[in-house]
Amino acid sequence: MSVVIRLSRTGKRGERKFRIVVKEKRSKRDGEAIETLGFFEKGKNGKKQINKERYKYWLSVGAKTSPTVSKILE
What we know:
Layout: E1 3-10, E2 17-24, E3 35-41, E4 48-50, H1 52-61, E5 64-65, H2 67-72
Parallel strand pairs: 1-5
Antiparallel strand pairs: 1-2, 2-3, 3-4
């Protein structure tokens, strides 16, 4: 099982809100997640929040980050 940390879309149509989740690589974008780590809102104010401890844990166990998530968390 290959695990990835990536974005899952939420909110109303037209809103750019995402959850940062841990999922199996082959699952659907908005499908069931193993764990939710935080959220990200795209736009002028670009809010983001992530649980750093759990993020580091998943990286230590072998989860990969998607290019978008790694760019957001730089």
